[in-house]
Each structure stands twice: as structure tokens, then as C-alpha cells.
Amino acid sequence: MMEKTREKWGYKKWGYIRNGLVVLLVLFVILDLWGGRGGDADMETLVAEVTKAAGMEGGRPAGARMVKRFYGLNPGDYESVVLYAPADNMDARELLIVKLATPSQREEVEKAVQGRLDVQLDSFDGYGAEQTALLEAHVLRAKGDYVLYIVHERADEAGAAFEKAFR
Amino acid sequence: MIFSSIFFIFVFLPVVLAVYYLVPFRYQLKNLVLLLASLVFYAWGEPVYVILMLLGIGINFAGGLEIENYLQSGRERNAKVACIVIVAVDLAVLGFYKYYGFVLENVNAVLPFDIPYHELALPIGISFYTFQTISYIIDVYRQKVGAQRSFITFGAYVCMFPQLIAGPIVRYSDVEKQLAKRTLSVEKFGDGAMWFLRGLGKKVLLANTMGSVFDAIMALGAANTSVLTAWIGCFAYTMQIYFDFGGYSDMAVGLGKMLGFEFMKNFDYPYTAKSVTEFWRRWHISLSSWFKEYVYIPLGGNRGGTKKAVRNLLVVWALTGLWHGAAWNFIFWGLYYGIILCVEKYILKEGLAKLPAVCRHVYTMVLVMLGWVLFSSPTLGRALSYTGTMFGIGGSGVADATGLYFLGTCLVPGTVSAILCAPLVYKWIPRITRAKEWYKQVAGAVIYIGIFLVSTAYLVNATYNPFLYFRF
Fold first, then answer.
1. How many domains does chain B have?
2. Closest approach of chain A CAs to the CA of B254, in angstroms?
3. Are B282 and B364 in contact (CB under 8 A)?
4. Helices marked H in B292-356 — which ranges?
5. Cα A85 to the center of its chain, rounded Å
6. Model confidence over B207-264: pLDDT tens digits?
7. Does the CB of A25 have a partner CB in chain B at under 8 Å?
């Protein structure tokens, strides 16, 4: 009897170990989902980190009307929208962060950003070399429920801060 | 952490190589150093997902021994069940992290309500190391290899940093003997260093340069893109992805050699191919051979008639596209190639071979470049729109000042890139570096030191250093 038990354990032990590790794996995945590593940075923190990286602290966010005018997006359709609009007609610098209400909105936001970018490039085409260069070097990122669009000399730093906020 | 970074080249790699060579010449110790270094490498970017990878290593390690035990006890059925369960767990983890967002996005598009979900970060390299563990389990079941008895050695195999995050997909059967015994020599180390530097130069000097041209063209928008500009953009991406991925693979092969391993090469001058079939024998060789071995052949391959063979090809290529990314444009990219391969195999057949070599080459490159448009576009709509622009639909004319500007900008890097797609230059390299004449050896050293110094200068200054295949 003892021999049979030992023999059974012999070739089943790896199966038991494997099953135990699978249980741990499932627990890990559940904790990961619950913790929402991919998608839950706080909007306020995110805006603070990104504006700090771009040196835009102290700026005033624009209102819903500007968001609609520039992007054709209705802020009420999204969880949250923050826009730092260009200071004047000769300024190309801009920051938009959108927290999506549903992931399916991502494509429409990215399309709206592309539309805005096309318009700005058209506007500065031929006479605004600096502005055109800034626009061409724009950063557009999507992570979790957030979309970032920035046109700025420190767009790369802002993009990196955006990525870092999700770790 | 990526290979083409200052920290990796000047800190991580020298420290790891020093420790690796200093530990006594016992393979378990060297494998332990490799495992620990690889875990640090991975944790640098993904500290939490190291746990996921370790759990995967543990499951497959235990699973391999379980299957072998069953086979040795004559319990074939139990072994088969265990194999299926472990492969299913591996695929479930990959599928979950990579595709559940995509699946729910598409389900939500159809349903009248949205199922809420949190999008998870994609663990780096999961597509590569999962395919490695699956190949191991299946090969153990097929009794092609024996189960690895050392957790350290198995862990070193799965997560060794040279190929962990961007391939090549190393099959256990290819490195089984090397894990237990491998040669370390000055010559091999030097050969590895040359491979690494060639890869670094390809990545930093060529891929990044062509990539910035491509990005600048993409930023123009469809309305401002002429036919000329669109083709330049497509060419730039074609060069970027090859030198990016090919360069990284060269670096992986080089690092492997420095550690005593011989990995298979992943690219064999794919842009010299004269048919799409040949292209896929030369591009990402480890992936296409994996799909052939573990999907196409088990499905029946080309046995069972033309209809079944076509079905099997399309399944394999849809999966190949899906492996590259959780998006419809990747699936369509895979199917695009599946269809072309079927056409070449069953319709064009020998007819294609009768054409002059130049025509076959142009035919192949046009199809490959159009494929890259599908691959690089964030949506199908953008891909179709860009392709239309390439053929004069919806753009800003045939040629314009912007197109001529980009033509001038990338004439030199583009020409150099095109030349370096062919084996000609690489054939000269061993003639210089392995020559007996001292002046040739000095010339070789000067070339490689030059590549190293210029690449380092670019890395120090660069703000633009993406790696395209990272997202897999």
C-alpha cells in the first residue's frame, strides 16, 4: 500500500506542482486585473506629471468650448478632458489629455487629434517653420483609458512622464 | 532596457559579461548567472511581470517533467492530456494579456451596451517566451528532447536576455546541448562582438534615421501627401522595420555568441527575395518555422488536397498576423500574405520563375512594401487611405516640394540602406577581419570601432530611439 502511494506520488508530484503553480498564476492575473496596472492613473496626477515634464505648470486649462472648436469632441461624452490650448494664433504648443469613458472611444479621439494636427500643419505651412517642426514632432500616446496629445518643445519628456504614470 | 541604450552597452553588459566569465567553468553556475542577469534585465522595465514569467517557467518546467514521467510509465494518454493542458495554459496567458482588450472592444462594437474592462499593460516579450515554452512542452511530449531537470537551466533557456524580448524564438531542441556544454573562446567572443556592433549600427544609424523620415511623412496627413512622398514614406518604413528588427536580431545573435551560444539567424537578406514565398523563408525565420512545425504540419500541411492546404495556409497566416498584434490590420496583413502565398503556390507556380530576376524582385518588393503599409497603419481605414495616396487617389498630386525635400533628405541614408539589404558588403567583412595581413585586420578594427563610436554618439544625442518589435 505504502509502495503504491509512493509510486503514485512519484509520477504525479510534478502534476501537483504544476497545478499549484497554475492556481498561483490565476491569482496573479486576478490581482493584476483588480489592481488595473494598465489603465488606472489618476487624471489629476497624470495632468500634474505631464505638465511638469513639459514645463507647463501654472498654465490654465481651456474650457469645453475650445475642446469642441479644436477637436470636434464633446467633453461630456468622456470621463474627463483637459486641454491646454495655444496661447495665441502664432503658438502651436498644445496639450490634450482625454480620459475615455469606454475604450471604444479611443479611435474617435485619435481621429480628432489627427484632424486637429492636419489643420494646424496647414495653418503654419509655408511661414511657420518652427511651429511646423513642433507639430511634426508631436507626441500622441494612448495607454489604458487615457489619450495624450502634445505639441511642445518637451513633448518627448511629457510622453515619457505619461508612460511612467502607469507603472 | 533595450540593447541600443547607453546603460545596457556601458553598464549592464560589461558587468554581466565580467561576472559570467569570472565564475568557475561549471555550466550550472554560468546558467545561474545568465538567469539572474536576465531577470534583472526584464525587471528593469517590468518588475511585476517578472513574477508572471517565473510562474510560466515553473509551470512549464514541472509540466515537462510530468509529461516525461507519464511517458516513461507508459501512460501515453495522461502525457497527452498534460501536454494539452499546459499548452492551453500558456496560450491562455498570452491570449489574455494580449487579446482580451481587442476581443472585448469588438464585442462592445456589436452589443447595444459596453462591457467595461481595464486594459492591461502587455508584458514585454510574452509572445516570444510563450512560444518558446510551448515548443519545449510539445517537443518533450513528442520525445524529441528530454525534459530539463534543472530549474536554473530551464529558466536560463526561457528568459535568457539576448533573445527574451525580441527573439529569435529559440527552440529548446536547438540549444539543449549548449545549455549543458558550450564553447567560450576569444574568437567566438570577438565574432559575437562584431555581430553585436553590426546590429547596433543597423538599429541606431539606419533604422532610427529612416524611422524619423517615416514619422515626419505620416505627420503630414493625407491631404498634404503626394504620390512621391507616400512612396518615400513607405520605403522609409520598409527600411526602418528591417534594420530595426534585423539589427536587434543581429545583436541577439552576437550576445549569444559572447555567452557561448549559437542561435540561428533570424533574417537572411529578405529584401533580395524574388517571390513572396522566398521572402518568408528569409524574414523572421524563427517565427515562420515555429508556425510551420507546430501549426501547419499538425493541421495536415499540404497533405489532403489543395482545399485543405489552402485552408491550413490561411489559418497559419491569420495566426501569424494575430501574433504580431491585437488589431484587425495585423490579421488582414497576415491574410494578405496567406492569399499571396496560395496564389504563388497554386496559380502562378512555375510561371513566376520564368520571369526575369529583376521583374520578380520588383514584384516581390512592391507586394512587401504594400504589406508594410497595412502593418504600420493604426487602422484599416488609414492603410487603405495611404495605399490610395501611393497610387494618386486623394493625395496632393504626383510630386510636390515636400516630396522633393524628403527625396533629398533620405537619398543618402536610403541608398546606403538599400545597399546594406544585400549580402554584398557583408561578404567583404570576413575577408577583412579574418585576413592574415595586419593592415586588413587594422582596417576591420577601425570600421567596427567607428560603428561603435558613431552609434554611441547618436544614442547620447538621440531623443528618437523606438523599437518597433517591442510591442510583441
1. 2
2. 30
3. no
4. 297-299, 306-324, 328-343, 350-353
5. 19
6. 988 988 888 887 777 777 899 999 999 999 999 999 999 999 999 999 999 999 999 8
7. yes
CB neighbour list of residue B314: distance below 8 Å, 6 or more residues apart = B335, B338, B339, B342
* Residue contact B221–A117, C-beta within 8 A: yes
| Three-state DSSP class for residue B304 | coil
What is the ipTM metric for this complex?
Answer: 0.82
Chain B segment 105-144 residues within 8 A of A by beta carbon are 105, 108-109, 114, 116-121
> What's the rounded Cα separation, in Å, for the pair B321 and B332?
7
Q: Are residues B347 and B199 in the same domain?
A: yes
Number of domains chain A contains = 2
Residues A49 and A121 in one domain: yes
My answer on whether B323 and B354 are in the same domain is yes
Q: Which of B118, B284, B324, B361 is labelled catalytic?
A: B324
Q: Which residues of B touch A36 (CB under 8 A)?
A: 118, 120
CA angle, corner B68, sides to B66 and B70, nearest 5?
70
This prediction's pTM? 0.78
Distance from CA of A93 to the nearest CA of B (A): 16
Could you confirm whether B324 is annotated as catalytic? yes
Separation CA A10–CA B239 (nearest Å): 55
Q: Is A28 in Cβ contact with B51 (below 8 Å)? A: yes
Residue B211, all three cell numbers: 524611422
Indicate whether B19 belongs to any domain: no
Asked if the C-beta of A38 comes within 8 angstroms of chain B's C-beta atoms, the answer is yes
Residues B252 and B386 in one domain: yes
